Amino acid sequence: MTTAEIRPVTAGKKQRSPWWVIIGAGIAGMCAPGPVSLGTLGLFVLPMNAELGWSRTQVSAGFTFAAFGMAIGLVVVGRLLDRLAVRWIIIPSFLGYATVFALLAAVGKDSLPLYYTLHFLVGLLGSGTSIPFSKALVSWFDNRRGMAIGVMTGFWGLGSSLMPLLASPLITLFGWRGAYVVLALLVMIVATSAVSALVRVRAERSLRGRLVKEVVDARSASVVTLDVPGLTFRQALRSRQFWMITLGLGMAGLTVTGIQVSLVPMMVDRGIEPAQAAFLLTILGLSGLVGRVAGGFVIDRVPGRIIGAVVVLIPIAGLLFLRPPFAVVAVAVAVIGLALGIENDLVVFFITRYLGTREYGRIVGVIQAAFLMTSAFGPVVFSAAHDQFGSYSTIIPVFIVGLVVSAIVILLLGRYRYPAVRGFDQLAAKDELAAAEILSEQAGREGNTTPAAEGAQR
Question: Where is the Major facilitator superfamily (MFS) profile domain (predicted)?
Fold first, then answer.
């Protein structure tokens, strides 16, 4: 087996704190397709409608094609993530999606199919700008994993709030075509710089991009294996936790996404002024940002299945109070946003605690793709209910029942299969190879577990 070498840290030079990885991943993630492409899409609707003559629905449909492309890409990226170094995935993904995003400036009146194709490619190529960051964080943080994930996704949420504020004046100054190009250049410069300077996986070594399973510690000339505990993808598919996580959190994502897209027209229908209804989206975003950070702090201290069940039930309270006056609606929306933020933290946390990190990329890629496709149906279901019955009220009880079922499913996840290793974060920050040895020993013990014993654990 080919091995790579890890040399000792130069005397007098301290190893960089893993928290810089969070900062780098957070800054780069602010430039991902979510904040930059999808987050600003609404601002391009009117100018493109005026110049190209496309309907608002036609312009907005770019989101659907991007989501479909990203769902496919996540599965592919997940497989690559278990084989390639993260930078070999993240940097080409940012450069590729940014290039395609800039090409949106070239669409003309008769090129609607090209417009949809480019959005599909934005999602497909941009799929490598999310889950590789979570792998990097998971490698460094075990005891404070929830907090690390929460801070990183908090940056991403901030990006979703800031990018529209940046895109609006760019459209005013350079037109919508120029704004696409400027935003693409921003992605290329900021994201690639942050990743190159700050983001890396603990003890990760590669040869021409391909990961190696052993490293030589130059301090002792000993060989250290880089195995990590966890289920294979096939084992994960046979575990009840895989399906419980997918179905439990997937239902919550479908509901919250449906609310998010339908919120403004729903509230206008119920008597809220259009300007106030639009401001509710800001409340939703800010509360989601708080939920991401606060949720990470709580998840490290309270069993995730309890937090998950509560988070899934929280939107029910919001759904029941989405009625005037505006103050009541604002509080209800804030509650829903808070739940949405915490839910984003739970996905990666649940996967690593119940399914491990042995084939993390493949597992998280499939689950995230399933979440994305499920969430895409939320707005469709809400809109279809309104078109059929003339009101959103008829579909809300159905979602409430679904959320209750999801909460019960999450509550039944059971105890963590892979709980945090005491003192791991401090050890990893000081000696990444020593941390690797602990995980390798744990993986070795797991390898000796018989199928019967494994089944008994489930």
Answer: 21-417
The secondary structure of 227-284 as a DSSP string is: ---B--HHHHHHSHHHHHHHHHHHHHHHHHHHHHHHHHHHHHHTT--HHHHHHHHHHH
Reduced to 3 states (helix: H, G, I; strand: E, B; else coil), residue 365 is helix
Q: What is the pLDDT of residue 12?
A: 41
Are 355 and 454 in contact, with CB atoms under 8 Å apart? no
Query: Which CA distances in Å does 321 have to 140, 316, 377?
Result: 41, 9, 23
Q: Looking at the predicted structure, is the pLDDT value of residue 1 above 60?
A: no
The bridge status of strand 3-6 relative to strand 214-217 is: parallel
Q: Which residues contact 295 (CB under 8 A, 6 or more apart)?
A: 146, 150, 307, 311, 341, 342, 343, 344, 345, 346
Instruction: Please answer whether residues 116 and 67 qualify as being in contact, where contact means their C-beta atoms are separated by less than 8 angstroms.
Output: no
Residue 426 lies in a domain: no
What's the mean pLDDT when you consider all of the chain?
87
Structural domain harbouring 368? 233-411
CATH number at residue 267: 1.20.1250.20
Q: Is the domain of 196 the same as that of 237?
A: no
- Phi and psi at 143, nearest 5°, equal -70, -35
Predicted confidence at residue 6, as pLDDT, reads: 53
> Is 432 within the bounds of a domain?
no
pLDDT band at 91 (very low <50, low <70, confident <90, very high): very high
Q: Minimum mean pLDDT among 16-25, 76-85, 98-107, 446-455: which range?
A: 446-455
Give the span between the Cα atoms of 387 and 188, in whole angstroms: 42
**H helix count then E strand count, the chain:** 20, 5
- Read off the pLDDT of residues 216-229 as tens digits, 9 standing for 90 and up: 766 666 778 888 99
Q: Indicate whether 56 pLDDT > 80.
A: no
Would you say residue 224 lies in a domain?
A: no
Return d(Cα 308, Cα 406) in angstroms, integer: 9
Q: Facing residues of 254 across strands? A: none
DSSP alpha helix (H) spans, 104-141: 112-126, 131-140
Residue 419 included in any domain:
no
**How far apart, in whole angstroms, are the C-alpha atoms of residue 297 and residue 341?**
12
Question: How far apart (Å, rounded) are the C-alpha atoms in residues 426 and 87?
Answer: 24
d(CA 399, CA 389): 16
Total residue count of the chain as it appears in this document:
458
Higher per-residue pLDDT: 232 or 157: 232
**Pairing mode, if any, of strands 214-217 and 222-225?**
antiparallel
Q: Structurally, how many domains does the chain consist of? A: 2
| DSSP assignment letter at 15 | P
* Separation in Å, CA 50 to CA 54, 127, 430: 8, 31, 58
Q: Indicate the residue among 411, 430, 451 that finishes a domain.
A: 411
